[in-house]
From TrEMBL:
This is DUF4401 domain-containing protein. Signal peptide: none annotated. InterPro entries: DUF4401. The keyword Ubl conjugation does not apply. Residues 43-246 form the DUF4401 domain. It comes from the Bacteria. The chain crosses the membrane at residues 43-67, 73-90, 97-121, 127-143, 150-166, 172-189, 210-229, 235-255. Keywords: Membrane, Transmembrane, Transmembrane helix. Pfam families: DUF4401 (PF14351). It comes from Flagellimonas ochracea.
Length: 271
């Protein structure tokens, strides 16, 4: 409870320095802290439980295959969407671990059926990837679940990389990396502003941040792993330069936040 106590002491200090107009719903703060702590504590358990739920769902999927669903593209499409919608409703309505993890498993299976059905409809690969991105963003907007938000963020990032590869525009990976680096920097530095602007960010901030980090790392992996994406070595400095500048900017912002203005001169010439 050390983090909560520190935050409450900080709120008390702010209250003492401000006038009577400054009000804080301490019960709401405590409740939200408990939810976020439980999400972090249960995340590893949820990830492990997904595999158990996934096996159970695969058994049900096998039953559907026996019924011949693979012979019906429309059937796969409808069942896939049904799994996705059901998973979103289930995870939004219930907060129990077993239902939560089963909902995530259903979502993964539904997404798999949805993608297979789209390819069976003879859609182009780019069209399928764009539709998957749209569905992931819709899920991100509707869902309140920690793991589903994280999966949706990863799905968007992976699909963008696949779009770059499928269209042979390999140098665009620099744009991807820079955009995610800028987005992650903004997301970290403007945490308070984002939560004040959209209170729903209180629930989604952690999974979105982790999703940003992993998506950014995927871009770095694509650049750093030789042969994965054939980019021209002479352009690698572009992403590196932007990342270095963003890192220096973050250091500067952190130092200023802590009142270390005297250290600004060490890196201030960049800004």
């Amino acid at each position: 409870m050390g983090e909560l106590e520190n935050n409450m002491r900080l709120l008390q200090k702010i209250r003492s320095e401000e006038n009577d107009d400054f009000k804080v719903d301490e019960d709401a703060v405590f409740t939200e802290y408990q939810k976020r702590r439980d999400n972090k504590a249960n995340l590893a358990i949820k990830i492990l439980s997904i595999f158990g739920g996934l096996l159970s769902s695969l058994g049900f999927l096998g039953f559907l295959m026996i019924l011949g669903i693979y012979n019906s593209t429309t059937g796969m499409f409808v069942v896939g969407l049904g799994f996705i919608i059901g998973a979103i409703m289930m995870t939004n309505r219930f907060e129990k671990l077993i239902i939560d993890t089963f909902g995530v498993s259903c979502y993964i299976l539904g997404f798999s059926l949805f993608v297979v059905a789209l390819f069976s409809f003879d859609f182009r690969e780019d069209d399928v990837l764009l539709m998957v991105i749209v569905l992931a963003l819709i899920t991100l907007f509707l869902v309140k679940n920690y793991v589903l938000s994280f999966i949706s963020m990863l799905t968007v990032g992976v699909c963008f990389i696949l779009l770059i590869i499928s269209n042979d525009v390999y140098e665009v990976i620099h744009v991807y990396t820079v955009l995610y680096a800028v987005g992650l920097t903004f997301f970290v530095l403007e945490e308070g502003s984002l939560m004040a602007f959209a209170p729903r960010m209180l629930q989604l901030y952690d999974p979105l941040r982790i999703g940003f980090i992993f998506s950014f790392l995927f871009g770095l992996l694509a650049l750093g792993k030789e042969g994965l994406i054939p980019v021209y070595n002479g352009t690698l400095w572009i992403s590196s330069l932007v990342i270095i500048l963003l890192t220096l900017y973050m250091i500067r912002s952190v130092l200023l936040d802590f009142g270390e203005t005297q250290k600004k001169g060490n890196i201030g010439f960049f800004f």
